[in-house]
Predict the structure.
Amino acid sequence: MTEKPSPPPNRCRLVLIADPRSDAGASAERVLAALTGGDVASLILVAGAVDEAEFQKYCETIVPKAQELGVAVIVAGDTRAAGRVGADGIHLETNKTEIAEAISKHAGKLFVGTGGAKTRHDALELGEAQPDYIFFGRFGYDNTPEPHPRNLGLGEWWAEIVQVPCIVLGGNQIASVEAVAATGAEFVALSAAVFADQTDPAGAVAAANALLDERAPRFED
C-alpha cells in the first residue's frame, strides 16, 4: 500500500535556493540529498555563472526527482529552461508590467514569482501584478548568520497586510529560520546554511525543520 503524503506543516516552511556554481556547494547530488532531510516546500534553481547548456543539464537532473518528493521546482530567470525541464514555476525580477505579461503567458502551465523589491513601494508595485509569491532578499547574499534586517522588516509588513505569500531570505546559519518565522512570512529561504562546504545538506534541512516545528508560530486556519 502506498503511504499517503503527510500534510504540509501549518507554519513557515522551507524554500531552498540552489546555484550550481562550483563555490556554492550546491551540486545536483547535494541538492537532491537536501530534499531527503525533511519538509521542503519548493526549490529555486539559479543559473549563476554557468552557461545555458550546463544549467539546463543541472535542472534536468534535479527537477523530476525533486517533484517525485513533492517539492515544487522554480527556475530563476530562464523561462526556456523552465519549460524544457518541466519545472513548476519561474522566478522573474523585473517590473510589474512584465510580471503581469508572464503570468498571462504561462497561466495554467507555470506559476510566476518575483523579487527584487528594496522598499515597500517597490513591493506594492510588484504585488499589483498578483504574482504567486514575492521574495525578499537577493540570491547569493545570505552571507551573515542573521537575515538582513530590511528583508525581515519587509516580510513582517507584507505578511500582515497582503495576501500574496512571501519568501524571506534567511542567513547562513540554520538558526536564522526562527527570525524569519517570527515575521509571519509563509516561507524562509536557505542556501548557504544548507549547501556550504562541510555541511550535511540533509542534516541541515532536518535541523531547520526541527527548529521551525519547535519555535515557528502557527498560522490561523
About this structure: The CA atoms of residues 89 and 110 lie 5 Å apart. The longest helix spans residues 52-68.
